[in-house]
Amino acid sequence: MSDKRQDPSAGEISRRSLLAGVGAAGLGLAAYAADAGKPVHAASAPAGKSRGPVPMAPFDSMRDWVAALEANGLLVRFDRIDQDKYEIPGLFFRATDQYGMYGAPTMLFDEVKIDGKWVKGPVLVNLYGHWNTDAIIWNLPVVPGDHYATYNGAMAYLKDMLAKNRGKYPEIPPVEIARDQAPCKQVVLKGDEIDLLQFPFVKTNPADGGRYVNTGSHFMVDAKLGANFGTYRAEIKGPRKLGINIEPNQTGDKFLKAAQKRGEKTVKYSIVLGQDPMVWLLSGTRLAPRFTDAPQDELAIAGGMRGKAIEVVRSEDTDILIPAHAEFVIEGEVQLNGPFEDEGPFGEMFGYLGPVKQDNYVMTVNTVTHRREPWFVNAMTGMQRASVTAPMDAMYSVLLGRQIPNFVAYTNPQDTMGFVVMSIDKKAAGEGLAAGMKVAERNPIAKVVVVVDKDVNILDRREVIFAIGSRWQPHPASRIIEDAFGLQTDPSQVKFARTSKIVIDATRQLPAEGGRESFPETNRALLEQGAPGIFEHVDKLYGEALRSWKRV
């Protein structure tokens, strides 16, 4: 075991400085230390206040990102949480009950009780759940009291980025640094020094199969397919054993099967945890084309999107390049010809318990490297937004804008998985259904596709449902696809990865579509026409009274 005694970079914040108490009680939810018999401190930093310089984008490390969340009032800290009683998911569900998936804060737990022992963290959840993170990640303005405007500002910024780069996100190649300058190499564990069960990886739900490493980016390199990293869950099956769950047709699965086809018996690769925000974004999305004429350098895309090269370092057991500022790295070996083991069950992204996955790959862990006092992130899968979503919405919007006449906007909400919404400026009969069919055919997640008029705010689910209820006629403004490719984790599927779909044209139906000759205006639109500037007027007079009211 080695411990590289070096000073943390100037941009880092220490665990202890972050956990120092500030501010007032965060959620108004009672947290307690059951065994300690004392109250647990829970606090959130007021927006704009911090105990030191606030890191600004681009964020080199997850710690910089957490400091920025703190400065923006989006972090709540707890001294202790008893996960043997499943207090983490209980607390987080109550937070989303109160604030919604897009309004809940990030939570940090300094110590977590696991299997009867208090384990030092910190453990963090919900790092990218709040609307405002889509702006903070690029140093864009946060519009006070208007999450939709904040999100749309991020969308405009990203669409402009795509426009300036011919419809793709830009690239800046990663830069390799010396291992003694890489925080992820501060501690090195080999062989029997390793015990993953001693670290605060948690069992999120009582029904899960066990404790999980569920926020790891799996970095692989294939001689023909190039380099790739993706997010796949891994069940901890022993001190040095992980059950790897990579779904069929995911890129990691293609890498392992390609090696297997060439007659290779094992594949060595690295699992990186505690990534910077941009590496995490690329790891869990399809922002980078997976297979083209040349291998795609996702680290270069991450660097280009943030405007600064990602610093990388070589893994201990391979030449695989990994982010140097990560918190924790697991290096291991997967046996391609078995033995295989069952994995799961696990609470999936749709919000339902998934099945046991039979005969999955197993990784033997040979090396672990990490920062001193590493930080850990647990994904509240099916409960939280996994990452900022504006980049994917922006890319889909650019692509759909090329294919769909009079396209306006698109969103794929994370809190209603399988339900997507698009707006168009409809000019001719049939445009709504035709537009919806293109989305349904392209996106496996899109099981219910709703098309609305341009005056509907697609980010506001209330407005979308209002349009369905008042503008949609199920016949003839619907289309059903009986058999289509669907997301594998959809609990309603009878046949694996196959689903039926429905397209709902909730635009105002034109006379040529069987609609009314004239469609009435909404009451709100009539108010704006008859009393111009009314909303600015009442905001000025009464806005503070509304903002200061405490919801009950």
Can you walk me through this structure?
- By secondary structure, this protein is of the alpha+beta class.
- The protein has four domains: 2-162, no CATH class; 172-377, Electron Transport, Fmn-binding Protein, Chain A (Pnp Oxidase, Chain A), CATH 2.30.110; 404-520, UbiD C-terminal domain-like, CATH 3.40.1670.10; 528-552, no CATH class.
- It is built from 13 helices and 26 strands.
- Strands 1, 9, 10, 11, 12, 13, 14, 15, 18, 19 and 20 form an eleven-stranded antiparallel beta sheet that branches. Strands 4-5-6-7-21 form a five-stranded mixed beta sheet.
- A hairpin with a 2-residue loop joins strand 13 (233-238) and strand 14.
- Helix 5 packs across helix 9.
- Residues 1-50 have low confidence and may be disordered.
The overall number of domains is 4
CATH architecture of the largest domain: Roll
CA distance, first residue to last residue: 54 Å
User: What is the average per-residue confidence, as pLDDT, rounded to a whole number?
Assistant: 87
Largest sheet: 11 strands, antiparallel
Write the CATH fold name of the largest domain: Pnp Oxidase, Chain A
| Radius of gyration computed on alpha carbons | 24 Å
Q: Uncertain segments of ≥5 residues (pLDDT<50)?
A: 1-50
What's the helical proportion of residues? 10-25%
Classification by helices and strands:
alpha+beta
Strand content: 25-35%
Overall body shape: globular
Total strands: the figure is 26
Count of alpha and pi helical runs: 13
In the CATH hierarchy, what is the class of the largest domain? Mainly Beta
CATH superfamily of the largest domain: Electron Transport, Fmn-binding Protein, Chain A
